[in-house]
Amino acid sequence: MISTLISNSTVTIMFGHNHPHKKFPIRHWIRHTAAVPKGFLRYFVLKLLSLKPMSGAELIEEIGKRTLGRWKPSPGSIYPLLAWLQDNGIVKEVPTEEAGVKRYKLTEKGKSLLEEETKIKRELKAKLKFIVPPLTFGFIWNREYTPEETLKFEESERRFLSALFELTENLEAKFSKKILDEVRKVLDEASQKIEEINRSLREK
Length: 204
Fold this sequence. Notes:
Layout: E1 2-6, E2 11-15, H1 26-32, H2 40-49, E3 54-55, H3 56-66, H4 75-87, E4 91-94, E5 103-106, H5 108-128, H6 147-173, H7 177-203
Antiparallel strand pairs: 1-2, 3-5, 4-5
């Protein structure tokens, strides 16, 4: 599995594996290292607050849910960020009848900042399409596979990954469960065919 986190200054690509016999400590790695780029938490918080007012605890819980438990920011990172956003007029506290609960929503300045950061993120994703790592390095010296054929393979690979990157952007703007289910079926079919090829190669 390849997952990509993008901020306005950082692109981080992380590799994981779901094979039952090759488990990597991906959750521990993401939670306890600098794998999450600078600025990503701020973008995530702005995005969530654009949907509805939320408290710090609710933001922590929602981020954990949306990342499937792979990343859950600590109170020590959420609350100072909310204080900074409020001091800079990006969010404001909304009235609540719940004792001890502070919920925040975006101000007009916050909405403008979110639009700007979303635009930057889209531009970086577009650039990322052209720098995906090729998978052909291991067999470029095979005489039976010409440089021209290698380039064709890499182009097919980039086309596939670029389509996935663009899909995530489109689904973020216009989410559709039906489309997501259709894409999942396509990915499952492609994975199954590649797994069948792998089995046939191992048996030779």
